[in-house]
Amino acid sequence: MNNVDIGKYKRIVQYFWDPEPKNDDTAGSPIWCLGREYRPLTPSPPRQADDNHTNNDIDNGSGSNNNCNNSNNINKNNNKRPDESKNEPYHYHRLSTSDRSGLSPTRQLPFTNNTRPESTSSSSSGHDWPAPFLDDFESKIWLTYRSGFPFIPKSSDPSAASAMTLGVRLRSQLVDSQGFTTDTGWGCMIRSGQSLLASALSILSLGRDWRRGTKTDQESNLLSLFADDPKAPFSIHRFVEYGASACGKYPGEWFGPSATARCIQALSSECKHAGLNVYVTSDGSDVYEDRFRTIASGGATEAGIHPTLILLGIRLGIDRVTPVYWEALKDVLKYPQSVGIAGGRPSSSHYFIGAQGSYFFYLDPHHTRPALPYHAPGQVFTEEELNSYHTRRLRRLHIKDMDPSMLIGFLIKDEDDWADWKRNVGSVAGKAIVHVFDKENSPFGHGSEREGAVDEVEVLDDEEYDETTNVDIVDDDGSTRDTDVGDNSSFFHISK
Question: Which is catalytic among the residues 136, 364, 417, 482?
Fold first, then answer.
């Protein structure tokens, strides 16, 4: 019994009982979302029975779809908190010292995002989350499992099957015999990486202040880059193609942060009109300014810094994030340059974009939706298609439950961003995650060891990841969620 992984069973229970988190931080800790700070609302006092209230005044959280499809239903029943309007929406942050179509006949999620009751406001849901934070959270691009896309050819290598989880291997033999038409069960890290990349491109094309419901033409152009079609430059097809040719990852095999980072770098280099350079650290947490400037300037250092995405594939412990890194990891999502963290659960990736205290808010890619067709630039996606890339439903995870292997992203747009980011990463509480050096051959860089380096951040190796058990959770409405919960011992299909 000493070797039983209690965490695996805990995760299964969490997928059965999946309530939306309440803002129960009694300390009143601020809420952060990719460099923006939001003041928490004061928790509502318990409501006393009152004959003046009818049953219609009460949101019992039963999961009815009547209240979860309309994101504009902000203050239903006129119960907006009187103190909400007094909250400043956000502050800029400166830390410087100055589906599965599968073996069972389950239904896919439709394009509309109605699998769970969404938080449509800070008060109508009863969870006391500030509406500006929810608006910001909902505006992030949420890439999830998709099904029904043009098939991804299987590898002819005899070793390919052994690299897949049992569930994916069975489905590839019984359902997707010609090739993969869904990434359910193996594409979560790719989807998290796509989300991170989409955030960076969203900032560049739409602006950090963009919120849903505006600039639908530009949003459609952005999403077309990630359509589930080989013609899209950042499609899962392109990720898998490059992963197979350059990273040793077979189609249907789970990607790790390192392979995902290399794919993002290569695909961004090919997609010139995206206007994004990508710097991937070769030494885990070490960033070398000379190499960064060469990449950020497109090879002409005198041209200055152009928008560049820094990707750090790192490991902050063995089984869990080592506590000495907790404060520095929390700070990552406070930097204005942050575009989030991909990874964070053992062999089950999420996209982390916010934090409050020791809890991290994330977008969960383990929801299967119909594939997004490719649209040529200038064509606008339908409202249902656009809605499938956003959610107002909060999920969070305590830092002590996070997997230590992750991919961290920062977007540096110009010289000011670079200077501010360097100050921020150099003035953290606890042990630093990122170290910046002038040159790659500096005394404390490649080939030598600085003091304390042995117990610091490890370079990430995708091969260190455990394989997974795939669990299909079928919700009351017939929609399917997939999660990966441990070793590669079995395939479950669980109906609630």
Answer: 364
